[in-house]
Amino acid sequence: VRREKRILELGCGRVKAAGAIGVDVNFAATAADVIADLNQPLPFADSSFDEVRAIHLIEHLQDILETMAEMHRVTRNGGRIYLITPHYTDPISWCDPTHRWHLSSFSFRYFGPVHGARHWYTPLELRQQALHLELARLWKYIGMQWLVNHFAGFRRFWEMYLCFIFRGKQMEFTFEVVK
User: pLDDT tens digit string along 123-178?
Assistant: First the structure.
C-alpha cells in the first residue's frame, strides 16, 4: 500500500502546494489549515512530514537557526526541505521592511557536513540536493545564469566578485534531512 506524501507548507499565504498542510499566522487572508506563530516551535510531532516547504518565508523570521532546526525536527530522515528566498543582491531583499535576513547561495552551508563530518556548531545536518539561482532576465539571456548554476567554482567567483553587477533574484534550495 502506497501512502500519500505528507507535505507541510510554512507561511503558505494564499496559495499552497496541492495536498499540503498549510501553516500561517492567520486564516483570513491565507489558505492555512493551521494557525501558528512561525517564530515558535511548530505544533507537529517529530518526523511527521516527507517534505517541508518555505517559500519566501525564511527571510522574515526572527531566528534562521531555530527555524531550520524546527523544519529538520518535523521532517523524516531522508525527507526534503524546499526553500525559496531572495538573493541579497536583489533589490526586493532590501525594499521589504519585514525582511530580517539577506542571504547568499552559501548561507545554508552551516548545516552541511564539514570535512566529511557533521558541523561542530549544530547537531542537525542537511545535505544540499539542489540549488537554482535565478538572475535578472538580461543576465539569464546572455548565459550568466547558466554558468552560475552549472559550475560551483564559477558560482563562488560570482558571489565574491560579480553578484553586484550581475544581480541575483531568488534562490531555490532543496535539502535532504539527515538524522
Answer: 888 999 999 999 999 999 999 999 999 999 999 999 999 999 999 999 999 999 99
Strand partners, 117: 114
Q: Answer positive or negative: Cα dihedral of 68, 121, 161, 154.
A: negative
Q: How far is CA 21 from the centre of its chain?
A: 17
Place of cell 531568488: 170
| Alpha helix stretches (DSSP H) within the chain | 64-74, 91-95, 137-141, 144-150, 152-157
User: In the numeric block, which cell numbers belong to residue 77?
Assistant: 530522515
How many residues in total does the chain contain? 179
- Check: CB of residue 48 under 8 Å from CB of residue 6: yes
pTM of the model: 0.92
Within 8 A by CB and 6+ apart from 140, the residues are: 134, 146
Q: Do residues 130 and 173 lie in contact, with contact meaning Cβ atoms separated by under 8 Å? A: yes
Question: Strand 168-178 vs strand 125-135: parallel, antiparallel, or unpaired?
Answer: antiparallel
Give the 3-state secondary structure of residue 28: coil
